[in-house]
Amino acid sequence: MTEERVDRLDKTIELLNKPLVKNTLVTVFSLGMFIGTWWAVAILANLTYLPTPPEVLDALIWSFQNPDPNLGTTMWQNIYASLQRFVLGFLLALIVAVPLGLAMGYSKLFDLVAKPVVELFRPIPPIAWVPFFIAVFLYFWGPVMVIFVGVLFPLLSNIYFGVKSVEPILLDAARTQGASRLQLFTKVVFPYTVPFLMTGIRIGMGIGWMCIVAAEMIGGVGGGIGMYIDLQARIGWYDNMFAGMIVIALLGISTTGIMQYFENATNRRMGIR
Amino acid sequence: MILEIKDLKKSFPKKKGEMVAIADFDLDVKEGEFVCILGPSGCGKTTILRIIAGLETQTRGKILLSGKEISGPGSDRGMVFQEFALFPWRTVRRNVEFGLELKGVSPEERRTRTQRYIDLVGLNGFEDYHPYQLSGGMKQRVGIARALANEPAILLMDEPFGALDAQTRNLMQKELLRIWSETKKTVIFITHSVDEAVFLADRIVVMTGRPSNIGQIYDLKWPRPRDRASTEFAALRKQILAQLESMVKIEE
Q1: Which of A123, A142, A231, B186 could bridge across to A134 with cysteines, CB 3.0–4.6 Å?
Q2: B171: Cβ–Cβ under 8 A, 6 or more apart, which residues?
């Protein structure tokens, strides 16, 4: 080998060892392995309900460009329908969970009063609420309410835990600085709880997607990705069904990713490394 | 007298009777005085300070600050904690101005008033740092600035340098004396280090074991800075150490 070639090889190895390049390569490799395996199994098994990756990709692209012949909506519209419910359900859960969690954490009396009811409802899987909520709140607000109950409890637990883990010495420090009980709450307890709230939101997001898909599937009317997936499976268009699942996966990854970013940013601002 | 502690008693209820932590504790502190309360661990010296701060209540007795009886915590007594107790989400400046913010002082005035104390403790240039970015010694500088920014009548320090390494500790003792001479604050300083007490105090109050009361008071009219290597420093250290040791023996 000439000097020059050795030098070039060195440079290539150096580039490959950079964390970002390395991680990207590994990710691409692992996804490639997965798709390759899927493809091979699909061809060898030759089952109607297991389409090949290119078929699913075609269906995915097609679903964004054209309205579905049975639903009359494009994938964009399905995403919009699900996302709208997701956001509304989430906001409702936040509006209830933040004050409730703070109050339960801060006031022993309030905790005693609220706890039995909260503990009674907590073990009910959110999906068990679907028939009731669809019957009462119909096809738009029904799934919204399912998300609401699904997200409520992880939010509530995290906020409650946040308030409970406020270091007593910080409260002592604030008291010696002349803080009133209200100021202890607004200046110490609340800021201390914010990172816990952010974690609750991130965990809630995963649960939220589960709830929305399940609620739309069981609901069966009113659009959304859950309904799309269910319908495609019923009529045997498995490539479309998988396309819908991929959309859910991508939505889940992006919302959790965005939330992770905000969580990290908050933690930095809150002085937690 | 800026602070008068009269017949202080603190006890905790037990199954049978009570556990007396502190009894018959009387102490008067003059304005501008530097008092160290020294004692074996578990002797209740921190409890005394917490009672003065209003964070705990006494079972009996009175504490007067500038002639007025104290009840509950207040910004007229500044406290510095061994664990620093800084608000991790606040920057140095926002930690120092915490008390003024509680009082509703305007942001501009807060800024000018806190800057003085930030400069005083030598943290100029670190105003926008978060506590996790600071060393232990710097954290405690923030703790001292925060306590002083409220302009309290008295500064209560609970083993403030206990969590620092030996070098930082010695440096911070010198820094504290400089800050003290510049602000002329009355200081009550809790420590279990005899060396620290002899280096800092105008008066050393040596506590006895449980139930705690005052074993002996040493008046030190020595000039500062004090020389740790001097014979009189070593002699006093030895004497107090022996006294503390004999108390621990009695305990056992």
Answers
A1: A142
A2: B137
